Amino acid sequence: MQHLLDATERALREVGDLLAARQPAEPVAATTPAEARAAFDAVDRPAARLLRERLTALRPQAGWLDDEWAREVPGTGEWWLADATDGAVQYLGALPHWAVTATLLRDGAPVLAVVHAPRTAATYTATAGGGTRLNGRRCAPRPRTLATAVAATSQPPLVARDPAALRAAGASLSAVLPHVPAVRNLGPTALQTAQVGSGHLTLFWQYGADPANLLPGALLAAEAGAVVSDAQGAPWTPAAPSFVAAAPGVHAELLDVLRAV
């Protein structure tokens, strides 16, 4: 597994270098969603093809999950779940907060994950039972309380189509804000969840099913020592309607707040 993890990291670094070289120096001037999508596809599609080629060569027997917004994860077999440019909005906005991600799923659970953020020089790696590393060094959450927590949240793609998640996203933000110094959205979900594992963020929560974006960070956060659950405290699964990752000392405090939403 370590050999596969190292090879996966090399593949993501190759794709990240390609994308970093092509990222616009200024925000893309797109006035419609179609224009923004066309500008993104022009760089993302070649990168996605390269990523699929590299990962398929590493694990030819594994299937491939193409739809980055997929809500269903196969329950059997091995599958690659990858995103060449996780953080399209930031990428097109000439911001550094985007990443290349890859997760190997086995029977519906992540067993290997890499999140590589070229612009911030951060590479997170983990295997099931093997811990999490940031740039090659073991990492762990930082002890905090809600009163000193660096909090983050986000929303799944197309959250407006899920009225329950949309309502909970707004209500939870209003509920959490009085208890923490600030709440931020720092880009890709996978990267923010991984940052809980390294202590750069204290907690992250989200409402709405979003397995494609949450699976890599869920493994990275849990293997680092963070507590991962849904907003009610039950074990998180790809089908769960909510997600929480937090440092151990903060997790229970956060759930007390979210349970009232």
Automatic annotation (TrEMBL):
GO biological process: one example: signal transduction
Organism whose genome encodes this protein: Kitasatospora cineracea
InterPro entries (UniProt xref): Inositol_monophosphatase-like (IPR000760)
Keywords assigned by UniProt, alphabetized: Magnesium, Metal-binding
Cofactor names: Mg(2+)
Name of the protein in its database record: Myo-inositol-1(Or 4)-monophosphatase
Annotated residues for binding of Mg(2+): 83, 86
An MF annotation (GO) of this entry: metal ion binding
Keyword Transcription appears in the UniProt entry: no
